[in-house]
Every structure is written in C-alpha cells, then in structure tokens.
Amino acid sequence: MTAFFQNLGMSFEWAWFVSTVCGILLIALPLMLAVAMIIYVDRKIWAAMALRRGPNVVGPFGLLQSFADGLKVFLQETIVPSAANKGLFLIAPIVTFTLALLSWAVIPFNSGAILANINIGLLYILAISSLGVYGTIMAGWASNSKYPFFSAMRASAQMISYEVSIGFILICVVLWAGTFNMNDIVWAQKGHVFGIINGFVANPLLFPMWVMFLISSLAETQRAPFDLAEAESELVAGYQTEYSSMAFAAYWLGEYANVLLMCALNATLFWGGWLPPLDIPVLYLVPGFVWFLLKVFFFFFVFSWIKATVPRYRYDQLMRLGWKVFLPVSLLFVVIVSGYLMATGHFA
Amino acid sequence: MIQTLAFYLFAVLTIASAAATILSRNPVHSVLFLILAFFNAAGLMMLTGAEFIAMLLIIVYVGAVAVLFLFVVMMLDIDFAELRAGFVKNFPLGMLVAIVLLAEMVLGLGAYKAGALNLGTPDGTAVTPAGASNIEAIGGLLYSRYLFLFEAAGLILLVAMVGAIVLTHRQRGDTRGQKVSKQIARRPDEATVNVKPEVGKGVSL
Fold first, then answer.
1. Rg for chain A (alpha carbons), in Å?
2. Contact assignment for B32 to A316 by CB distance below 8 Å
3. Residues of B in contact with A161 (CB under 8 A)
C-alpha cells in the first residue's frame, strides 16, 4: 500500500504514514461493525440453545439490535460517582478499548494482508494482552466501590494466572514454527501433517496444547465458564458496575473485540489461519480471508456454545486449573516438544 | 522524520512520567506513572532496534511486576503525610543514592564515548549480526558465549522462588484439604439418602 501512495507522488515517509493510517482504519472500522454483529450472533446462539427467540424486533430478524443498543447507550448520561477518582475512572475504559484494538495490528488476514509484519508478532500480542489487566484494575480501583474492586482483583489475578500457561503453550507453537512472525507461523502450518492437513492442531503433540489454549483463552477473556469477574449473583456487574453511557459501551466493545482476537489467535496459531483446512489446490481458489473469517466465526460459535451450556467455575477451581494443571502440563509439553524436535533434527 | 518525532515523544513522556512518579501525592497514581515510564522506555528501545528487549520489558515489568506493585499499593493503607515527614531525615541518604546513580551514568557514557563498549552505531541502531533478527542474535549469544551466566541466573531465580515458598508455606493440621479426585468421583446415590422418619423422631447420619 505504501508503494501505491508513493506512486501518487508522495515522499516515502508520508506514503508510509498515510498507508498505515488507512490500514488501521481498514482494520478498526470493520472490526467495530463485526463486534456489533457478533454481539447479535452471541445473543441469538445463546437464545437458540435456551429455546428462546433472542433479539428479533429491531430490523429484519433483529439484525439492527446492537445498533439500537449502541444508540441508546450513546444518548445516556455519563455518570461519574462523586467518590470516584475521576481521571482514572474515565481513562480506564479508554485503555481497555484501545488495547483491544492494538493486538489486531499483527493478525494476518490473508497472505501478506497484515498491518505490521514484524518479527516479534507473537511477543507483541503477549505484551499487549498482559497490559489488558490495567483497564480492569484501574476501573475497579477508581470506582471506589466494593464490588468493582473485588471484581478487579479477581479479574487481574485470573488474567495473570492464565497468561503464564498461555506463554508456555505459545512457546510450543513457536518452537515448531521456528519464528515469532505471525505470517510465517501460518506458512509453517502448510501441509503440516502427512503433507495434506494445514494446521498444527492435527499434530498429536500440539493438539493438547490447542485444547489448553482454547480453555485459557476463555479464562483470559473472562468468558463463561470463567466469567467470575462479572459473576452477577455475587458482584452485581463486576468492575463495570459504576459505569454508564459510552464508558460502559467501551468496555462492552473492548470485551467482544478481545473475544474475537482470541478466536483469531486460535485460528492463526493452531488451525492454519488463512490457509484452507486441507492442502489441496482446489481449495486455494477460495480467498484466504474467507477461510480466516470462517475459522474465526467457528471459534466464536464454540465460545457462545460454551457460554450457553457450561456452569460457572468456583474461584478456587479456576486457580487450581490454572496453576496446578495447566502450568505443569504446558511446561511438560515444552520439554517434550523441544526434545522431539531436537531428536528428529528439526533445527538441523 | 517519523523516527525523530517518535523519539522526542517517547523521551519527553518517559521523563515527564518518571517525574510524576515521584511527585504525585497518590501512591496508586505513582505506580501508574511508573508503568507509563516503563512503557515509553520500551518505545525508546524499539526505536534503537532492540525490539526483543522492548517486548520483554513490557511483558515482564509492565505485565507482571508492576501489576503486583499496583496490587500491594492498592491494598496498603498508606498515610502520605507520615511518609513525607521523614523527608529531611532521609535527605542525605537520598542524595547519596542519587550521586552514585549519576556517577554510574557518567562512567557508562564515558566508556561508551571512549569506544570501550561495542553497544551500537552512532546513528542509534544496535549491532546485530548481518542477516540475523534480534531474537536470533540474543539467543545465539545467550546459549553460547553467556551460557554459564544465563544458567546461573536461572538457578539463582529458582533458589529465590523456592526460598519464598519455604518461608511462606506453613502446614496446618486443623484444615481439611480438598481431594478433587474424590469430589469428581462422587455420585448422587452415595451422596444422598432417602429416609422416612416417623413423626417426632429425628434422623441419624
């Protein structure tokens, strides 16, 4: 895209600047639309599994429900509690929302269709997701209210715990792919098993890692069954209890953008990203981003399915799963995978 | 031009947030400004081409260490007036630390200017072997030239971790631990009993 703007007569730096801004808009605006639609999809799936109808009033099949909700929230009054720490209270949702968008810079949508094709793509995602704690913890503390604070404590402890095992899981993927670059990780999955299946997931050593990554990504995004941070029977509405209007909407959008990001990561790291599922020439006629979006949507369906069917975890069970089960098992698999790769001369 | 703009942005924000860290009255604000300073320092490292170190700074310091700072500071009930009362008493010690830090910085800069250290080129890019990325260069050095130091650092950290666990872990006899396998293996017919006691009589378990 930089070359295109350079052809229009701009200097390289301006062309780079304009093309980067265009790239950001090209990702962020469809993402916001996708988030609005995916909230509708989430509610519809959830309703279908509970034998209800779900949103069906606004627009055809209720398709415009999210936009109606958005308008309602937009017109609401912004209420800042008098005892709140005003600056932090208003910054916190902005932090959450921005961080939810930042990680998308390194997600490959198609071969080469990636905003920042950097060598350390996966590390960048880890870094940004480790910052996600701050939006929550700042909201909880700045609200100056009991339940949001409890919730912020729970959420941040939960996110830190599961990031540890996610790190080890990703190391297994990186070892096998031999790179941190997201695009190259996708390429490394081409014909990975028997030369025909695209995706690390079919590899017997990496399949357990994918299962753990899926569960960890549920915990990381605080989706059911790990939605303890907003357990409505215990904590009113969690860290966003005191929020209203656009600040509340920013949390809502950020949360779903994070869920979509985790779906995209599942697709990219284990299911071959924009590659078709099988390495057959006919399947490459379908554009890569169609495969990518199909995979992301599939994982979102799995997320909704889990939300509709699985009861909430107890907090001690959640911590036990993270520290006593996932951490040792993922550590063991780092040893097994690297041992296997050394034994078979993968790095030779 | 973009690099220059980015450098001044990150540099100004680093210094400003570092100053705000020690000047702000609220300890939570202090920690948050410290985090901002870390983050901008990572941005500066990114500009010098040390992207791996920049990411590690964010993951380790911002993502893990600073969160624990924040936890502790939020939980503590710190009276700041009392803290400030010791200002005059601790002033000489503070000055001493500041002078030592300044001397170290001057020494480091002097050594760099004299060309004793091969840190990087004058235009600010770090030295990496041609054709190798940042991570590969660091990994190659860590696992060949500095292998012993690297492993020793790992061992020291392990000992520190084990030590912390040993110091804080206590075995209490009067608690009942959960046996998860037993909880999962429980079935309804062994967990519930259906009894029909006569009127006026209790049941025994």
1. 21
2. no
3. none
Confidence of residue B119 (pLDDT cuts 50, 70, 90): low
Contacts of A218 (CB under 8 A, 6+ apart): A224, A225, A226, A262, A303, A306
Tokens of A257: 């953008």
Say how many CB pairs under 8 Å bridge A and B: 60
Q: Which of A103, A101, A109, A98 is nearest to A121 (CA)?
A: A103
d(CA A11, CA A280): 42
Query: Rounded to a whole number, what is the distance in Å from the CA of A329 to chain B's nearest CA?
Result: 17
Find chain A residues with C-beta within 8 A of B26's C-beta.
85
**Most B CBs within 10 Å, among A12, A19, A106, A130, to test the B interface:** A130
Q: What whole-number distance in Å separates Cα of residue A118 and Cα of residue A108? A: 11
- Residue type, position B107, single letter: L
3-state secondary structure of A312: coil
The Cα–Cα gap between A225 and A79 comes to 31
- pLDDT at position A12 is 75
CA–CA gap between residue A12 and residue A1 (Å, rounded): 11
**CB-CB contact of A139 with B71 (8 Å):** no
Q: Which two tokens stand for residue B71?
A: 């936890």
For residues A34-38, average pLDDT: 89
Is B133–A119 a contact, with Cβ atoms under 8 angstroms apart?
A: yes
Cross-strand bridge partners of residue A278: A197
The CA distance from B31 to the nearest CA of chain A, in Å, is 11
**Which residue, among A290, A267, A295, A94, has the nearest Cα to A189 in the 3D structure?**
A267
Distance CA A121, CA A181 (A): 5
Q: Which residue has the tokens 């608690």?
A: B175
User: Is A315 touching B (CB cutoff 8 A)?
Assistant: no
d(CA B205, CA B202): 10
**pLDDT tens, residue by residue, B33-65:** 999 999 899 988 888 877 888 888 888 888 888
What is the mean predicted confidence (pLDDT) over B123-128? 52
Chain B interface mutation, best of A16, A134, A324, highest count of B Cβ atoms under 10 Å: A134
> Among A135, A89, A97, A56, which residue's Cα sits nearest to residue A256?
A97
**Interface pTM (ipTM) of the complex?**
0.79
